[in-house]
Amino acid sequence: MIRCELVTPSSSADPIWNEWRQIETNTPESQRLFSADWHRVWAETWGATGKWTGQVQLVAARDENNQLQGVLFLGRPRVGPLTVRAMGGHDVPHRGIQAVHGQEEAVGSAIGQFVAGWHWLLLQLGPIRRSSRADQAMIEQLQQKCAFLQQRGSREEISLLAPDSFEEYRSEVLGGKFFRKIGYYERRMARAGRVDIRHYRQPTDDEIAQMICDLDTIEAASWMTTRGTGVPRFTNPDLRHFWTEMSSEYLSPNDHIDCWVMSLHDKPVSFCFTLNDGQTRYVIANQYDNDVKDHRTGSTLYRYMIEDGIERGIRRFEFGDGDLHYKSLWGAEVRDYSDTWLAIPNRVAGFAASLLPGRSPEAPAAEITQTTPNPGRQAPATTET
Asked: Which of 39, 55, 266, 332 has the smallest count of CB within 10 Å of its CB?
């Protein structure tokens, strides 16, 4: 029997963080990167800036022996006086419940019942993956018990399932023609001047500072900022702080970082920033200076990144959403979907929302689920610490 309680950590030394750390090795590999310290550092940096207030709460799921079995991490966005909670943590690659292996459905169901009976006015969930058994069990409970639930959006998750050797990948996935083209672009770049490619793995604090500075420089000269479109990762001062602290406190000590930075005449011009977790590598950002656009530096770094990963036992490369055509050249396909949801546990507010049009402009009609008010439901027993 799983029961849930709402925990508000008093500090970074609160016992709940250590409890969470103790279950991480017993959770599915796809969840381990997004662990206690990932969320704690986020709460102390990016989660306390911009639209976030820095206030966080954890829905802790425990068994009959009071042992922690799973956690849903929630932050509080800045939306005035409304009582709103949202899944916290960096939204790329995804968010969601971390649960002990074998307890995913039980934990997700218990958390779904708990939050459906809470007093929050609004609850924003996502992006959560459809392949996550815990998150989908939570959504199923919300569909049954929540006053109002609406899917707000959906995105494709593109990934490559790699073979056991790079030689096999090169011949059977890339093909000779495309691989020769990658080599041509690298040789042409070399003719433009002195080229250096630096691979950061478990960087020191000084190396992290240099790496983040280089990523900022490249991103500032990329199409993302010159066109005013896209989502910056490193030019935003608050995000630079987040990635610096996250890299120093959590990612680098646990060997989660692999980053390639290409320089031309000592000027950083292209990068590929990735995070590793077991046999999975998440490609967080791949960017280039507009001055080297014609040299296809991204292809060169992708080649280094994938070859390194395969040789080290990486078998799944997650590219997020975006341009499938380009990523399909590397053998990537749409293999999952992530959804965002809006839940209104409050019965009065849920009834009012149910009277509004049920279509969200952010998602196709077929992907929207809306429930009617359920005045007969009972709130679960809660313990707040």
From this structure: 266
What is the DSSP pairing of strand 195-201 with strand 257-264?
antiparallel
10 Å Cβ neighbour count for 37? Answer: 19
- Comparing 30-34, 94-98, 188-192, the range with the smallest average pLDDT is 30-34
Residue 248 structure tokens: 């120093």
Q: What is the mean pLDDT of the chain?
A: 89
User: Are the C-beta atoms of 300 and 186 separated by less than 8 Å?
Assistant: yes
Query: What residues have CB less than 8 Å from 292, skipping those under 6 apart?
Result: 189, 192, 264, 269, 270
Contacting residues for 212 by C-beta, under 8 A, at least 6 apart: 234, 240, 243, 244, 247
From the list 74, 118, 136, the residue with the least C-alpha distance to 337 is 136
Estimate the share of the chain in helix, then strand, then coil, as percent rounded to the nearest 5: 40, 30, 30
pTM of the model: 0.89
CA distance 165 to 189: 27
Distance CA 136, CA 108 (A): 7
Task: Quote the tokens at residue 376.
Answer: 């007969």
H-helix or E-strand containing 338? strand 333-344
* Residue 243 backbone dihedrals phi, psi, to 5 degrees: -70, -35
pLDDT of residue 348: 66
d(CA 97, CA 112): 11
- Residue 356 is predicted with a pLDDT of 65
Domains 3-155+338-367 and 163-314 share a fold: yes
Give the CATH architecture of domain 163-314.
3-Layer(aba) Sandwich (3.40)
CA distances from 284 to 167, 231, 275, 330, 360 (A): 25, 11, 7, 16, 28
Tens digits of residue pLDDT in 128-167? 999 999 999 999 999 999 989 999 999 999 999 999 999 9
Taking domain 3-155+338-367, whether its CATH number is 3.40.640.10 is answered by: no
Domain map (residue ranges) of the chain: 3-155+338-367, 163-314
CA angle 171, 274, 88 (to 5 degrees): 135
Q: In this structure, are residues 146 and 368 in contact, taking their beta carbons and an 8 Å threshold?
A: no
Is the confidence at residue 370, as pLDDT, over 80? no
